[in-house]
């Protein structure tokens, strides 16, 4: 028994009898298809675009055309902020406050009745040389009015939070599609070998509905998916070296593990999860120092900590995430997504019960840190290389949820988001909703139009950035014709 040794499988087809039968049967049936595809040049065309997944999937790649932007930050206001209380002033709501709404919409999300028109209690003022009107909810962000490009005519295809977050992140209301960050990592690669290309930081109250589907790599190799960072303590669980393990011992273990995994992968080259797992061990080894250094804010000055609001309980968490974001960008991370609001209802921007109190809370948590990040990026010279995106999965109705109830329902027909930073023409508002702010009526911008614009600002043509899957060249912006919002570009 001690002389027994492993003998490799020598069967001509497959490694089990079941694989043998499957491959033999499928092989004969597929001969005609292979012949047809070969005649059409299918395989030669795809060979140039599909490489070995083990060949550095995150190696830096040039954009389709020259651009300023090298990094992007998505400030995701989870739960859907109200456009008429933030960046879309509507004097008609003040005039007709308390009156029944007589427009086209008859019911809100989940069949909720449309309530009476409700004015905003927040004062809108003109800011900067541009005179861009911004709500009093954002006194710090308003200082950068001339840098903001507000899209006041956004619309999406769903009124549900889960599918809304998915569509805003992946372009689809269905689970399984690659997220925006995954597409950017796939198209441009990473600028740092010791940190992930795509980092996500959620709210301590919970993540968005749909969880990790919002930063998934979908059908792409798993190397492109987002990496969830914690803003407090160890950035990644189980990242530290186990007690009593030397670096040399750990290196030897990883080398052996890599060798065994590569032998396993050689027979299963189609399994991208396996190739990503192999790379993840190496990345984790390199990250043990790099990631811990990023979240260590002890070397930041007290003035910087105060600027981001780390000294105040309300702003401390989001301020810490924004400061870590700046440090990630300095180290070459391609895409960072920060979530404000977690869990459900009032713990997010989902102000069904009392939109006014809700927005005071969440705007108060995020306004100062966001402004600090913008100021800091300008100070360190990264402003012209960083694209900022602010918004949620949709907006909120200009009506109350019932008479005398200060909550607002979901509104997917028209809402506001803003862009700033590299390549963006600031100090302007693009598009418009109707007089009450219910529906986009001028220059409507679909979520996929926004994605096309973001990709363009990052130097990528949304029609050329494709990934072959299920017999099709898949795109973030889908098969429907979409357009870049050209007015948003500097």
How much helicity do the residues have?
A: 25-40%
Number of domains: 2
CATH architecture assignment name of the largest domain: 3-Layer(aba) Sandwich
Secondary structure: number of strands = 17
Number of separate helices: 11
Largest sheet features: 9 strands, mixed
The average pLDDT value, as a whole number, equals 86
Shape: globular
CATH class of the largest domain: Alpha Beta
Helix/strand/pairing category: alpha/beta
Q: How many angstroms separate the termini?
A: 75 Å
CATH topology title of the largest domain: Alkaline Phosphatase, subunit A
- Provide the β-strand percentage band: 5-15%
**Low-pLDDT stretches:** 1-11, 41-54
What is the chain-wise order of helices and strands? HHEHEEEHHEEHHHHEHEEEEEEEEHEE
Radius of gyration: 25 Å
Can you describe what's shown?
- With 490 residues, this protein is of the alpha/beta class.
- It has 2 domains: 1-48, no CATH class; 71-242 and 291-488, Alkaline Phosphatase, subunit A.
- 32% of the residues lie in helices and 14% in strands.
- It is built from 11 helices and 17 strands.
- It has helices spanning 17-39, 42-47, 91-95, 161-170, 180-188, 247-266, 272-295, 302-308, 313-330, 355-379, 447-457; strands at 71-77, 124-127, 132-135, 149-155, 198-201, 227-228, 335-340, 386-391, 395-396, 410-411, 415-421, 428-430, 432-433, 440-442, 445-446, 467-469, 472-474.
- Strands 1, 4, 5, 6, 7, 8, 11, 12 and 15 form a 9-stranded mixed sheet that branches.
- Helix 6 runs antiparallel to helix 7 (272-295).
- It is globular.
- The termini are far apart.
- The relative contact order is 0.20.
- Mean pLDDT is 86; it is low at 1-11 and 41-54.
